[in-house]
């Protein structure tokens, strides 16, 4: 007998009929002899409906009240799922974040979980009760309702699994696992059987939106095995877990792409100490996250600097940089929203050389110019012209042997 | 400076625009120098939407989970109203039933308030904060969400007013007070300026659905002055308060009617001890509420018995009575759903005689036959043929001088 934590996202519980489907899946897991704790999101569309109400009410809704509002979405789902299981003859009981309680800090709409009390849930499990927990929500020390931010139900699930020392945390979603790349772009993309936390973090932050980043950080911290799988079939999905030797033999686990960034270049920047701070401090103060930064070698005491920000921040960033330009005596600023970031990810890179080289050569062979490069221990990212995104992903996917055919050949 | 508790019902907060209107009214009360605590219902239609979800999910939803589900309605409203007040520059803070806390018993979907902690609210009021409380909801000793039943927000408001020893509890609704009778039926109906708790209880239970009965019981118990008034204008409404001498000078305060009952007659009942218990115990066990009961004088050791039940219970009651009939040796049973109950209500009856007489004569003059009569200290009710309902209400309204014209004459 195992303790299984299952999380169902908004599309999995989007209608009463879909909630019935989830209930059958939960019941089967229970009938198989497991203790079951279920975390659910709001029914698809519900959170958007609530956010629209807030937007209609006023321009800048208070974050405290915003959390009171949007947390009702999950509350509706836990009640309906519990009712359904009860009508099927099972003991089921719903829990709000405040009832467990899931204690968080007070950062409304992006709260972090501090602790989860497992006492009441354990007691109920002992009595053969299936536990249904509202994802995405908690309370702070003063009893205020908090929410964890969009996608926070994944984090709720992993945190509950960690608190209960569950054997596995199954994240049910509308895809059946983590793929070597976006299957809509590359039909040959394969489902990954096992992926390390580190790789998953890179995949997630680079645009493979299967799991919320913070849930992976949480899983890594508490060593929770996360099983990403489909609500709509019984096939095994992808295990996100601690790195093992088998993973290291794979050079590249996946190819990610991200079209959400824009590039800003500053020309003729005086190459002197403190100049970078003068440029990036005001951006940081304006809450603009800078991703990649590149500084050219200096010529005649002048250099060029290029960095990327989210497209949505580009105009704001440009304005700030233009203000700074005069002060530091730079000669010009240019932005380009027409870029794409392509990344290869794999823990195997740590012990294998020449992987970046293969990436550069593969792109060069297709005539794709690399505009920026950044690397970490387990990934290499290149900024290219956006129009080559699909081509780049496809050729890299093939070059690193990730295609279905390639694997079958190896087998 | 006074402490004012205001309650706004579902139609008053039915849209974002209407919530804005409520916010303006709340703000004005605050600007006038009052401390303000606001209790709100779910937006009109929202509770029905949630109930429909539960009905779609299963036939007999668990009451615990039902409460978790429907209590989200009020939660949405408190968040939106607080946001709106904040955007207008006021300090406002929402409270869930569980956050105050409003402690109730564990009778889900019809819970009774046991106590309300005023500590946090008082603290916030001291800091100039407007308090927005979710009506209809509370928690029990185990932290389960409970609800007070339909219309429970009235009771929440009166209970909060009692706990805070508020100067007045204003119940805002879509009518502008309590009328001498249904104005849709009698255009001459007048708004009542002041009415005693006892009269209001009779009015409410007889079909004048302005205030939930339990809220009036609560107000009576804790001597809370309730001001029933309109959300959509500034006219004073009706004060529901302790009986005073002025009220006693009025013979009849109002005329109520109720078409929700049906009449069941049993013929040839052996007139012997214990027979009533044999008839009414099984009805009570089946949760059927019997309202009026009449037993004719006995002839040849046999009697007839007639009683009224809710129309919705009539078929079930008839089946039970038919079962009993054989056992007690009665000769026949008949039901009639085509009846109406007309009542005259007034604390003045206590000290004035001849009021029932006037009622009987007035109905007789119009050829309206009285089928059953029941009386209490402050009311007389008659069952008549349903088709005479409107006529009976009109002539009684006139006979007891309740018409607008009559009052103007007196003035």
TrEMBL record, chains A, B:
It is an enzyme of class 2 (transferase). SUPFAM superfamilies: ACT-like (SSF55021), Carbamate kinase-like (SSF53633). GO terms for biological process: homoserine biosynthetic process; lysine biosynthetic process via diaminopimelate; threonine biosynthetic process. Its EC number is 2.7.2.4. ATP binds at residues 7-10, 173-174, 179, 184, 209-210. PANTHER family: ASPARTATE KINASE, ASPARTOKINASE. It comes from Malonomonas rubra DSM 5091. Residues 264-347 form the ACT domain. GO terms for molecular function: aspartate kinase activity; ATP binding. Substrate binds at residues 47, 74. It catalyses: L-aspartate + ATP = 4-phospho-L-aspartate + ADP. One of its GO terms (cellular component) is cytosol. Keywords: Amino-acid biosynthesis, ATP-binding, Kinase, Lysine biosynthesis, Nucleotide-binding, Transferase. It comes from the Bacteria. This is Aspartokinase. It holds the Pfam family ACT_9. InterPro entries: AceGlu_kinase-like_sf, ACT-like_dom_sf, ACT_Aspartokinase, ACT_dom, AKii-LysC-BS, Asp/Glu/Uridylate_kinase, Asp_kin_monofn, Asp_kinase. Pathway: Amino-acid biosynthesis; L-threonine biosynthesis; L-threonine from L-aspartate: step 1/5; Amino-acid biosynthesis; L-methionine biosynthesis via de novo pathway; L-homoserine from L-aspartate: step 1/3; Amino-acid biosynthesis; L-lysine biosynthesis via DAP pathway; (S)-tetrahydrodipicolinate from L-aspartate: step 1/4. Belongs to the aspartokinase family.
